[in-house]
Amino acid sequence: MDKGKILVVEDDRAVGNLIMTALQTGEYECRLAGTGGEAILEAAAYNPDVIILDLGLPDMDGIQVIDKVRGWSEMPIVIVSARGDDTDKVAGLDAGADDYLTKPFSVEELLARIRVALRRRRSESTDPMEQAGVYRNGDMAIHYLSGRVFLKGQEIHLTPMEYRLLCLLAQNTGRVLTHNYLLREAWGDSQAGDTPALRVYMATLRKKIERVPSQPKYIQTHVGIGYRMIRQEVSPGASERT
Ligand code: CA
After folding, report:
1. 190 CA to middle of ligand 1, Å?
2. Is the model's pLDDT at 196 over the cut of 50?
3. Is the bond into 58 cis (omega within 30 degrees of 0)?
4. Is the pLDDT of residue 86 over 70?
5. Contact assessment for residue 29 and residue 54, using Cβ atoms and an 8 Å cutoff
6. Residue range 131-155: average pLDDT?
7. What is the pLDDT of residue 83?
8. Res 78: pLDDT
9. CA of 38 to the centre of ligand 1 (A)
10. Can you give the pLDDT at residue 141?
């Protein structure tokens, strides 16, 4: 089975080779680019399923690579940045990256992020339910046409803002959405809302959709960065949709 093609963008040879070895062991097809220029060329020529992108490159900023690639493709991009550098991560996510890894990271972490990114890549526009205007994730369903939300078949009532936030997260399942992005998209203007207000809406939304709000399984918090909708695994025995 074709597990997927990964483009690794990393100028540090040793780190690059380490990632390549991990991916090959995981039976992924992969290619290494050492500069931003090479990365943009390979993104087009190799057409990877996921890009692992180091932000510190010799010829340009990794953000510029994201900008270029997003000009023509929605392929998942996972950025790699140094520990503690949240502004870098936020800038990368705002430019359109999906997710981030903090250096140093383990092989398990890397492979887990790739699986999430590949799942997003593959579920995109191929889900027949979603094409019919219904989003399903675990026990939750959103009927976009009627604007109704169900949990285990029971309708739950959301305020317009909670509904908007839930839809944004659902439509970007697997992606980390920054505070800025959510404020801009949900309020229509990033000046209209603020992060504390967003936090309050997220808390009330969670109380309605999470069974244990303190241990959320749908909406993951990324402290100082944003939120992500997690795709729930299909439970054993549930009918598998393909
Ligand atoms: Ca680097």
Report:
1. 31
2. yes
3. no
4. yes
5. no
6. 92
7. 72
8. 97
9. 14
10. 95
What's the number of CA atoms in the CB half-sphere (13 Å) around residue 168?
A: 24
Q: Cα of 175 to ligand 1 centre, how many Å? A: 23
CATH of the domain at 195: 1.10.10.10
Condensed to tens digits (0 to 9), the pLDDT of residues 55-84 reads 999 999 999 999 999 999 999 999 998 877
Length of the chain: 242
Ligand 1: distance of its center to the CA of 12 in Å?
A: 6
The residue range of the domain holding 236 is 128-241
Cα-based distances in Å from 102 to 52, 89, 205 = 12, 9, 29
CB 64 within 8 A of CB 147: no
User: Would you give the distance in Å from CA 236 to the centre of its chain?
Assistant: 25
The answer, yes or no, to whether residue 236 has pLDDT greater than 70, is no
Say how many Å lie between the CA of residue 204 and the centre of ligand 1.
40
Q: pTM of the entire structure? A: 0.86
Q: How many CB atoms lie within 10 A of CB 130?
A: 18
Average pLDDT over residues 185-191: 78
Same domain, yes or no: 138 and 106: no
Which of the listed residues 125, 150, 170 is the one where a domain comes to its end? Answer: 125
Judge whether 183 and 200 are in contact, CB under 8 Å: no
Q: Do 107 and 192 fall within a single domain?
A: no
Q: What is the mean pLDDT of the chain?
A: 90
CA of 141 to the centre of ligand 1 (A): 41
